[in-house]
């Protein structure tokens, strides 16, 4: 019997269906509304799972922004957007908040198509100031007096893109309000000089500019923060009380202030709203997970949670039938690093998500968390490789997109042996299209001298990590999906694979399924059905998207009536390169029946994985349908003899 308590009454929240309903509330009522909003957020996420800590950290800021400004006319842009659940509850989506991250439900991030209160979509970090400046300059051209407010976390502020935007905003001088939500947390504790700098700021600079509007922040921070501020103050005594970095960049700076104290936040926002000049940065000190003890006490502040029991905070954990690909990767890398001291590992602010936290426990000096800085991570690895080290750059497929020019210009062009460990390759479920690892095959297989591998199960992943470790002749990448493996027997040690060699998993004679990656299991299931229909089916695991196993592909095409490639990636990846090969070798001239199954040329919205694969037409049913279409003569059951007639002969 779940000990879930019924959610507490929310009399004020029940009266707020749109932010304009907040205009008539007193400051005291806004404080009550914030408490109710926090409880509703906790209750909703206890049902849906998702990103909890970040949203709890901005409840008061969200209430204050919507109470003071006139959204959606005034544009409110959240950075990353994982903290937007309280915002969605206040902006007409409370009735659907328990559909968060579900099929046909609300997105877990801000999304333009979902609401006018979401003027700009997010999910990848550090985009809010650039987007906000775009809105501000557009507003100026249109002669409007609207406000643009960006809420960006201290983690997101560690990415280069944020500085590019600050630099430009300070130079342009457009009216722009940037609220730095400083909770001294990224997903993991923040890293880098910027996080140290921010700590100094709130230690040494009592509130400036708007003292009349808010009391001296440090003395009024909640005890846990105040203690930290005092500790930091002793560390940085003698700090020159000059302009902050933000002021040097052309921003007015207001802060630090307590980002949970509406008696500070409201007057600051009201004052800033009346200002009519340039960019201003408001430095709010908050706590990730604020107001929910299990989150506040957790090391990760409940950054990302599954559904949980509100009373205890205990999360519902799915029973793992096999180790996760992430864990398998980390353990395989540790095994390689045990015998090769030149192996080092780099993450961009995601040590836990990539499994490098495990590597760091074993080799603390050989793991580098560079912050949310994928571009830097890639070129940092290029430098490491050029110096003779063996860097493994572990970045999710979707986030690696952020460092693409660095991959081309700094790694591939110089043939530097950087090893890319590409987790979350393929569809990722509840995070939806912003996080899908759809494009890495396309953006890597077109690069000369790149070796691109895709693990079909967790045992293969171990071998591919060993292969990447051994491969120093140019850059390489191993891609593998989010979630658990298949439960295959695990090898004791990784075997170095022969580069560019695939493998036949099941022999057949009429139809060939050439799989890349973990769709192999679906291919084997489809092959069983095809065999039962009298169509003898071969299943091959390509293993390498680049270099292709040309001998294998040509023999499959020549010796079968139908060849179907299957990959969990967008068009322009593995299947495209197979088609290039077959075209170049004249195989297509002879009417070879080819189909290439890829992710569709559209974004797949969040849902349960099995529903997404069905929608993407990348499951066993779709493979069967593709075989039927390739035969092209009615349903397979009725025409097995015709297939035999269509077997290609040399
Ligand atoms: C380009 C990019 N890299 C990595 C991530 C993964 N990520 C999501 S939230 C987050 C930490 C954000 O920290 P912060 O901005 O301080 O927000 P908080 O969670 O503390 O509210 C990271 C690294 C991302 N969304 N985008
Ligand atoms: C908000 C964000 O970008 C990360 O928290 C991401 O959602 C993590 O994804 P995984 O849950 O696959 O590690
Ligand atoms: Mg933070």
TrEMBL record:
Keywords: Isoprene biosynthesis, Magnesium, Metal-binding, Thiamine biosynthesis, Thiamine pyrophosphate, Transferase. InterPro entries: Dxylulose-5-P_synthase, THDP-binding, Transketo_C/PFOR_II, Transketolase-like_Pyr-bd, Transketolase_C, Transketolase_CS. Binds 1 Mg(2+) ion per subunit. The keyword Metal-binding applies. Residues 323-488 form the Transketolase-like pyrimidine-binding domain. It is an enzyme of class 2 (transferase). SUPFAM superfamilies: Thiamin diphosphate-binding fold (THDP-binding), TK C-terminal domain-like. Its cofactor is Mg(2+); thiamine diphosphate. It comes from the Bacteria. GO terms for molecular function: 1-deoxy-D-xylulose-5-phosphate synthase activity; magnesium ion binding; thiamine pyrophosphate binding. One of its GO terms (biological process) is terpenoid biosynthetic process. Gene3D superfamilies: 3.40.50.920, 3.40.50.970. It holds the Pfam family Transketolase_C. Homodimer. Catalyzes the acyloin condensation reaction between C atoms 2 and 3 of pyruvate and glyceraldehyde 3-phosphate to yield 1-deoxy-D-xylulose-5-phosphate (DXP). NCBIfam families: dxs (TIGR00204), PRK05444.2-2 (NF003933). Belongs to the transketolase family. DXPS subfamily. This is 1-deoxy-D-xylulose-5-phosphate synthase. It comes from Georhizobium profundi.
